[in-house]
Amino acid sequence: PFEVKLASSGKVYTIPADSTVLRVLNDAGVFIPASCEQGVCGTCLTRVLDGVPDHRDLYLEQAEQAANDQFTPCCSRSKTAMLTLDL
Ligand code: FES
């Protein structure tokens, strides 16, 4: 598990191994648009302000993934204990 923090509210959410950032946030009423939920379409793309995403998508180019300033919350996870998102 890891945590995500929303920059706007400062709220922190725990993402369990069997769920996704997208699902946890949507369940909490934080709406992120999504479509494929498989890391293909890029609809859910979200800016990352702090922390290092564990990119699992097929959407971002390698250089874009390496920049670590955006990720796909439908499938990607975190390499750091916390990710701060621009939400
Ligand atoms: Fe398609 Fe996340 S919903 S990449």
Automatic annotation (TrEMBL):
Complete-protein stretch covered: 235 to 321 of 321
2Fe-2S ferredoxin-type domain span: 2-87
Name the UniProt record assigns to this protein: 2Fe-2S iron-sulfur cluster binding domain-containing protein
Protein's organism: Duganella lactea
Taxonomic placement: Bacteria, Pseudomonadati, Pseudomonadota, Betaproteobacteria, Burkholderiales
